Amino acid sequence: xxxxxxxxxxxxxKVCKNTLMETLQIEFTDFGDNWLAAKMPVTQxxxxxxxxxxxxxxxxxxxxxGSFASHIFLNLNEVFVRGIEINxxxxxxxxxxxxxxxxxxxxxxxxxxxxxxxxxxxxxxLISICKLTTISLPKKK
Length: 141
What we know:
alpha+beta; hydrolase activity; HotDog_dom_sf; Thiol Ester Dehydrase, Chain A; 141 residues
């Protein structure tokens, strides 16, 4: 039985309990054929001392949405997925509202996957752009 979009998003958010994603209040919001979106509130919880969004929190959001995209779009009955590299370019600061992440596959191979994750603010300004490489390895039988 295939899950509805709403059920899949709900299940994805549910597995984030007691994890970094819950700590940062990351919420998965939507997905399509080759992308997944999430949002994170910009509050004191994710500030650097200057009162703006910490780059590490931004990267945690990017890795979370990119890794979950690989989980959703690969056959997890046969493989497990791990992030192996991430890079980020921070372009603009933000101190309130939400940041929105959208992970899109650049390459969806059997072993490695490459995703581009754009982080934007509530006004669709580009805050950061990240690239994440994941690897899918066979589960031992």
